[in-house]
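Forum: Protein Structure Q&A
Topic: Joint prediction for protein chains with partners

I've read a bunch of threads here and the consensus seems to be that you should model interacting components together rather than docking separate models afterwards. I'd like to see that in practice. Below is the full input, 209 residues plus whatever partners are listed. Could one of the regulars post the assembled result?
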Amino acid sequence: MSERGDVDTTIARRRVLDRAEIPVDTAQLAHFLIGKMLVRVLAEGVAGGRIVETEAYGIGDPAGHAYRGITRRNRALFLERGHAYVYLAYGSSFMLNVSSETPGVGAGVLIRAIEPANGITIMERNRGTERLRDLARGPGRLSAALEIDRRLDGSDLCRAGPLWLGSDGRASGEIGQSKRIGLTHAADRLLRFYVRGNRFVSGPQALNR
DNA sequence: TTGGCGATTGGCT
DNA sequence: GCCAATCGCCAAT
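Posted by a regular:
Agreed with the consensus. Here's the joint model:
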């Protein structure tokens, strides 16, 4: 789809999401974010793409990082909806979440994959591969491709800054729902959302039907 | 102060 | 498909 020449046009049609339009409820936000754009502004250019996979970690969820209350690490989950919570998993992979619910309530949505649209060469360099499908399929890969790390923890994604959420007004395609990936607790709940048939979605085939 | 444990990934069988 | 790498977090010592 997106060739390197049409990048500027795509960006021009894009607008930053207004906090007022994004759902307060965590699962609703996870569904809402499918099809929206994730935009990373870097010194070397703009990189990003369409969100194709998310997971909700709502109020009282034993699998969520906010489950045991606020700590230094997870405090961004307690910010007003639309802020970034970034943490390091398994010592090597950064995870990007969007805070949800009301201020003081800890919950968020994990962004698991994007369909690359802009700054392909930047992402290829950051990932060390030219395989388009592998650039941002999976939360750790997505963060590596977009140079997302703890410096972005707590930043406002509803504002034109280094990292923001946008909309180009286009529909996402059919949205599927499944169990979340890689969990041991509360693994049965259907809180993962993805674009059906999209090859940039991560996880096993059985969960992507 | 310490030890067990991940919301993962990539390499190897 | 299996599994080790890797390190910050946090509950328990």
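Residues 1-9 of chain A have pLDDT under 50 and may be disordered.
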